[in-house]
Structures are given as C-alpha cells and as structure tokens.
Amino acid sequence: MSQKRALLIIGGGIAAYKSLELIRRLKERGIAVRVVMTQAAQQFVTPLAAGALVGERVFTDLFDQVQEFDVGHIRLARECELIIVAPATADLMAKAANGLANDLASAVLLATDKPVLMAPAMNPHMWAHAATRRNFARLQADGLRFVGPNEGEMAEKGERGLGRMAEPEEIRDAALALLVDGPLKGKRALITAGPTLESIDPVRFISNRSSGKQGYAIAAALADLGADVTLVSGPTGLPAPQGVTRVSVETAREMLIACEDALPADVAVCVAAVADWRPERTASAKLKKDKSGIPSISLTENPDILATLSKAKKKRPRLVIGFAAETDHVEEHARAKIAKKGCDWIVANDVSGDVMGGDENAVMLIAKNRTETWPRMAKGSVAKKLAEEIAKALEAKAPRK
Ligand code: C5P
Asked: What is the pTM of this model?
C-alpha cells in the first residue's frame, strides 16, 4: 500500500495535548504525519514534543524564509491525502469559514485541494454562539468533515457541555474512513502468523521453522484492500506491514488471548504455525547438565486457535480460514480439517518441497463446495488472490462455503 500522509494542524486549545496522542494513533496505522502548529497551540504543547513524535520538524511560520523555501505552505497543503485540524478552535473555524489566510495554518487550509477533517474543541458557550453556528454551517457546506465535539467535562472547573474534543481514537477512525478505500473498507480482519515459542526454561524453548512470510503477506494484502487488520504474530524477523496493527506474542496461549481481544472481526485467517504442544512445566531456572542425567520434558497440548475461533458461540467471524501444510493426499486431509476445526475454508499447501521459509507457494483453496488449485506463485501473489476471494465472499450476503 502506498503510504497515506496526513497533515495535522494543531490549534491553540487545552485539548492540544491529546493531539500528541493522535499522532501516535495515526502512525500506528501506518499513516505518515506532518504537523503544523499555530502560535496559540505553542502555548499548550511545544513544537519539540510534536516534532519528536513525527520524527521531523514541525511547521509554525508562514513568513519563515527557511521553512517557506524548503517546503512552503502550498506544498504542505498539497503533499498529503488528508488535513486534520485538532483541536479546531473557534478562531481557526472562523478563519477557515471566511477564507482568512494570515498565518500558516489558515493559509494551508485556504490553499488545499485535499479533504479536511476538523475536530472542534472549545467552551460550550463558544460552540453554541451564533457566530460559531454560522461558521460550522458554512464549513459543512464547503465540504469540510467533522468529528465531535463531544459532551462532557470541560477544563474549566465545574463546566460541562458540548465542546470537548473527540478522543484521539475517534479522530483516527474518522481520518481512516476518509483515507482508506477499497472493497474491504470498514471490514475487520484478524490474521495469525509466524511460529509460537514455548519455553522449557529461561533459555530454551520449543518452536518451529515458520518464517511468518505468508501470514504477513496476507495481512498486507487485506490492508491494501482497505481492511482494518490486526496481525497477531509470533516471533519473526519481519517488519509490521504498512497500515497493519501488529500484536506480538510468544506462546500459543498468548496468541489465543490476543486473538480473542481482537474480536469482533469479519474474517479470521489463521496462518500461524502454532506449536501443538508445550512443556507441561517451564523451569524457573536453567536446567543444569550435571544434575540428574538427561532431563525428560513432558508435553501438554496447546489450545487450537483456529478451532476455538471457528466454534466460538459469540463473535465468530463470518469467514474463518485455516491453513494446512500437507505432504500427501492434500485435498482429502484439508476437507477432514474443515470438518474437524469447523472453519469455512482451508488453504492447503504441499510442503514436501521448500515452501517453509521460501518465497513461493503452491496452494489449493478448499471450501465446503469447491476446490481450486492455484498455480505456484510468489507468497505475495497468493496473499493478493486470497484477499480478493475474501473481499468477494464478504461482499456476498452469506459467505460462499
Ligand atoms: O492441525 P493443523 O496444525 O494441521 O492445522 C493447521 C491450521 O490450524 C492452521 O491454520 C493453523 O494456524 C491452525 N492452528 C491453530 N492453533 C493450533 C494449531 C493449528 O490455530 N494450536
């Protein structure tokens, strides 16, 4: 996915401190953030703090020769896919509604041809004032979008009412809705990937050779189609794909908890190579070689994440997909797995070759009433094709079985 860029204009209000949190929430979703601060905003948070979070300097001046020569207000206004104004003060709203452009923030708002999302924050009397009502109506008519304000406690002692800035997560979600497009927009996907690691003692563990590549590629492909993706990953050396929320875990039990926390989801794709067994006990100190000969490790069964999600009474994803690594009778074994685990589809691959850790995969997509054999292709292409099949299935009223 090409990285989406948002320009965040921070206005001068006490809610400005929440905009620092907003920067983090946007970056977590793979959005590149550039920041403009008004003079008033700098009374509440510093450009240094915002700059540290975005990883570049913050823009503050319309008439600063260096800033204007380097980037300039016209480029700031255009080199993004969305402008977010948070907090949008009564003053900034008034300026934007009337086309004033006497500082960097207002000049950018006048110069832009990109969508603008405002998160108003002000005292309830200011929000209710006839002038603000007029400006709000004008801005809505001009096509600007709004999130909040919310009802609640004000910074001023004892005051309550409409005027609190929306929470960073709400602003992020409103921004994502404007930034993201594709057939899976608004759909939530849960992916498991990588191996799990089950400790024997503080230094030794049981694990497997899963690289996580196929699961990561599926997470990326679903995000490309606009899905809100949570990737629950065991230890891998891979970077989190752009625009995907990764939750890192080690053990099967941690993976199951993280998956359940990520529900509800429209689709779950279990690609992780979960260790079937774990040591019954994890020694708290390193097992010593000289103690009493060779230790024996007794194993116990790990939870089956795919089966648990498939059979969930509450919050079962509409479409649950498992993977099956087989060395013989691929289709037959995959069909048996659908029945046993209760999932909807199985993506089966023949692992008699070099699939584990390799960059290519030859798979069959097996559903209750269909079998498709896909040609050998790059794991990224398998992921893309699977994501398209998922989008088709979720578009249909009832998922194709
Ligand atoms: O039973 P088997 O390991 O062959 O099944 C593979 C499928 O089940 C994969 O989708 C894998 O992610 C999932 N699985 C799981 N939890 C387990 C074992 C397997 O989610 N404990």
From this structure: 0.80
